[in-house]
Inverse folding.
């Protein structure tokens, strides 16, 4: 192993420290502040460790964990795009591709390809591992909202139909967890923590 | 799968969110604030993914990652014990054991045993996986100090001999990475970011 190789690896490790400064819209469960993408990545990786048995198809939990550890690294350059932000969503893919080129590009070639492929697999959400990882990544903000009285939802004008439309694809990774989330969303509407769809609001 | 089981799993996931509020002594690489144990856990897990080839003995990188994801969870109750805090260090084992009982105890019995065993293996640092995981956990604060001009070292009166004594055991997990860290420590002393041992200071 050449020391050049180690130096490249350490440079990557230091660079991704910046993910700790990328803020998401969701709040910590105790409501004290918004969470950042690094601590979210840890949390959702732990979720994969504990909930892997609920995947529709058998998954390699270790791969799901690694996928979730790297899934937000591109945000170091591209920032966090709020899931309900349609305008930002359009340019997201291109911004993140450029970010992936630069950040994974800091690594030695073999690891660059390996981590980049893992990130692309997550983004494409076509394999069982990636579909399950994506389901967990969608579920986490719902849990955070439920336990902060729907704070990020209310601050960003998100309604129940938006939550359902956005998270419906969870069922491709885990029908069990999607069922759980649907029940949470209903409860949140009943409690007034999440606004009903505009149509229902007018009819009620 | 009973829904009781899922409820227990989710309760654990929500409980460990508190790790995001446990502050360490080290600063982010950009120096803006101290880091918390959740984002540190993500960072050191990523480190394991990238540096596994430098372990003395072959390791199961997936197990090392999982070990590092859970290694600080007991701090939700026990708090972060600064590695150079001798008094706190004495009561640490007992405080963390009680914390492990409660927090891993939220999980269904099979997962409680599995994650607890993983944490205990990390703490004992006797297997190749655990020795390597422990080496990475020791290395990370050195990297953070080096890139913030030794800020946490200076704020806490840490001298070069303390850093060497504390981190020497890194060599049991990775001689390559220990060698790298020793060179960093020498450079830090030369640059005045880390105080030399008191004896050397008097003789100089």
């Amino acid at each position: 192993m050449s020391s050049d190789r180690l130096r490249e690896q350490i440079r990557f490790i230091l660079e991704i420290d910046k993910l700790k400064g990328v803020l998401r819209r969701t709040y910590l469960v105790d409501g004290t502040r918004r969470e950042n993408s690094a601590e979210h990545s840890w949390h959702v990786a732990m979720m994969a460790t504990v909930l892997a048995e609920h995947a529709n198809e058998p998954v390699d939990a270790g791969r799901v964990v690694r996928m979730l550890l790297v899934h937000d690294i591109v945000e170091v350059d591209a920032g966090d795009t709020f899931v309900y932000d349609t305008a930002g969503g359009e340019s997201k893919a291109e911004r993140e591709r450029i970010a992936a080129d630069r950040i994974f590009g800091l690594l030695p070639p073999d690891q660059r390809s390996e981590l980049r492929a893992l990130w692309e697999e997550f983004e494409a959400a076509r394999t069982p591992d990636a579909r399950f990882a994506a389901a967990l990544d969608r579920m986490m903000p719902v849990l955070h909202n439920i336990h902060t009285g729907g704070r990020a939802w209310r601050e960003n004008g998100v309604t129940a139909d938006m939550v359902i439309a956005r998270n419906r694809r969870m069922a491709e990774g885990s029908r069990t967890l999607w069922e759980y989330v649907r029940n949470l969303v209903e409860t949140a509407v009943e409690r007034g923590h999440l606004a009903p769809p505009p149509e229902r609001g007018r009819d009620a």
